[in-house]
């Protein structure tokens, strides 16, 4: 199952030009089996998410991309009450509740902000980002080798053109956010650039 683990839609991500349902249909057309909404620093309301899921032609998962002092973090399974710009605070809650934190596009800024201690907050990095350059993704894939879980892949789509450029392949069929979290925790997945 191919799932794009990094997507932005409007109006929740102000920088995105994509309507949620438009994203879902474009992703389906381009061969994806699922998308994971990762808006900047905010979550979707439960009823709105369920309405999108009912209308979408593929599976829709939900996570978040947090803007923090250590860079952008893709957080899976994190309650919205724990959203914070302090990576330390986010990591403390993630540890308690079993959420998984990945450092997003770790080579984009050219400078890793993590230290020997704070690198422990992350289970891995986003090793394939569809909006990054080839060299940045090579660097990110190299970084992922140092973590306990493999790197994840996502398009980081903000426009129609960017949809479907990258994804994460899972062996099984995932139907819920809980399934996605479990599959990530198992480490049985692979980040892919789809072109
Ligand atoms: Zn980002
Ligand atoms: Zn993003």
Automatic annotation (TrEMBL):
Pfam families: PHP_C. InterPro entries: PHP_domain (IPR052018), Pol/His_phosphatase_N (IPR003141), Pol/histidinol_Pase-like (IPR016195). GO terms for molecular function: 5'-3' DNA exonuclease activity; 5'-3' RNA exonuclease activity. SUPFAM superfamilies: PHP domain-like (SSF89550). It comes from the Bacteria. Residues 3-70 form the Polymerase/histidinol phosphatase N-terminal domain. PANTHER family: EXONUCLEASE, POLYMERASE_HISTIDINOL PHOSPHATASE N-TERMINAL DOMAIN-CONTAINING PROTEIN. This is Polymerase/histidinol phosphatase N-terminal domain-containing protein. The lineage of its organism: Bacteria, Bacillati, Chloroflexota, Tepidiformia, Tepidiformales.
């Amino acid at each position: 199952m191919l799932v794009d683990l990094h997507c932005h839609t409007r109006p929740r991500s102000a920088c995105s030009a994509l309507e949620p349902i438009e994203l879902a249909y474009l992703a389906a057309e381009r061969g994806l089996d699922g998308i994971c909404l990762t808006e900047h620093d905010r979550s979707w309301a439960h009823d709105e998410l369920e309405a999108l899921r009912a209308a979408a032609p593929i599976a829709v998962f939900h996570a978040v991309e947090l803007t923090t002092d250590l860079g952008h973090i893709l957080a899976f399974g994190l309650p919205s009450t724990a959203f914070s710009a302090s990576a330390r605070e986010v990591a403390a809650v993630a540890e308690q509740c079993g959420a998984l934190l990945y450092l997003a596009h770790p080579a984009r800024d050219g400078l890793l902000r993590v230290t020997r201690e704070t690198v422990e907050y992350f289970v891995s990095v986003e090793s394939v980002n569809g909006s990054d350059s080839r060299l940045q993704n090579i660097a990110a894939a190299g970084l992922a080798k140092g973590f306990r879980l493999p790197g994840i892949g996502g398009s980081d789509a903000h426009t129609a053109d960017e949809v479907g450029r990258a994804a994460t392949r899972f062996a099984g069929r995932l139907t819920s956010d809980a399934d996605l979290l479990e599959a990530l925790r198992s480490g049985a997945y692979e980040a892919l650039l789809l072109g």
